[in-house]
Amino acid sequence: DVKVTQSSRYLVKRTGEKVFLECVQDMDHENMFWYRQDPGLGLRLIYFSYDVKMKEKGDIPEGYSVSREKKERFSLILESASTNQTSMYLCASSPWGTGNTGELFFGEGSRLTVL
Amino acid sequence: GENVEQHPSTLSVQEGDSAVIKCTYSDSASNYFPWYKQELGKGPQLIIDIRSNVGEKKDQRIAVTLNKTAKHFSLHITETQPEDSAVYFCAAIQEGGYQKVTFGIGTKLQVIP
């Protein structure tokens, strides 16, 4: 089974702190994604990466950055956390050739609270 | 870009009844339509998908229908069971390249025993 692991299930941070959300997948997938999930807004794409050191902006990249130094790892960075970034963050991966088609494999999510 | 509308946002049904969730999309170039189920405390998981060259697809108690002309597609769950209680997301995608997946806002389904 594909496993996408998000390092932290729950985080509480203070406004202005730098926050790192880590995601690791074990199926050698080329594509990795970060989504944000909010009630009434569904899943919104923040950033995605289709190769090591490559990244593309999604729908809501403002206030976020990403890093993909190794194929299996995709990190989401909040340079200076703000209260409006309190949310559930979901990482996903998918294999090469499907781009954003085919099956997305999601992690269990990281719930971030910014005070 | 693509816009996907999903309704209802919440749905309660009695165990054994059917549930229907509907989505509409805006981009006629979209040709792949997956449905994801998210159980409490977990990430979404693909349960069924349909491509634009097919009008209907079934997998046991779940089925999807697609009307390309009207740009809408639906998820049908028959003989609902308590374990069907979850949030369901539809999505519309144009295959090829690295286009973004556009999800609907989700439907919270509650199956009452």
Describe the structure.
The complex is a heterodimer of chains A (115) and B (113). With 115 residues, chain A is mostly beta strands. Chain A is built from no helices and eleven strands. In chain A, the strands form two sheets. In chain A, strands 2, 4, 5, 6, 9, 10 and 11 form a seven-stranded mixed beta sheet that branches. Chain A starts with a strand and ends with a strand. Chain B is mostly beta strands and 113 residues long. Helix content of chain B is 0%, strand content 54%. Chain B has strands spanning 4-7, 10-14, 19-25, 32-38, 45-51, 56-59, 62-67, 72-77, 86-92, 102-103, 107-112. In chain B, the strands form two sheets. In chain B, strands 2, 4, 5, 9, 10 and 11 form a six-stranded mixed beta sheet that branches. In chain B, a hairpin with a 4-residue loop joins strand 7 and strand 8. The N and C termini of chain B lie far apart (41 Å). The A-B interface holds A 4, 31, 33, 40-45, 48, 50, 56, 58-59, 90, 92, 99-101, 103-104, 106-109 and B 6, 9, 32, 34, 36, 41-46, 49, 89, 93, 95-101, 103-106.
Concise summary:
The complex is a heterodimer of chains A (115) and B (113). By secondary structure, chain A is mostly beta strands. In chain A, 0% of the residues lie in helices and 51% in strands.
Helices and strands, with pairings:
The complex is a heterodimer of chains A (115) and B (113).
Chain A: E1 4-6, E2 10-13, E3 19-25, E4 31-38, E5 42-49, E6 56-57, E7 65-70, E8 73-78, E9 87-94, E10 105-106, E11 110-114
Chain B: E1 4-7, E2 10-14, E3 19-25, E4 32-38, E5 45-51, E6 56-59, E7 62-67, E8 72-77, E9 86-92, E10 102-103, E11 107-112
Parallel strand pairs in B: 2-11
Antiparallel strand pairs in B: 1-3, 3-8, 4-5, 4-9, 6-7, 7-8, 9-10, 9-11
Alpha-beta classification of chain B: mainly beta
What gross morphology of chain A would you assign?
A: globular
Cα-to-Cα separation, first versus last residue of chain B = 41 Å
Query: How large is the share of residues in beta strands of chain B?
Result: over 45%
Q: Oligomeric form of this entry?
A: heterodimer
* Low-pLDDT windows of residues of chain B: none
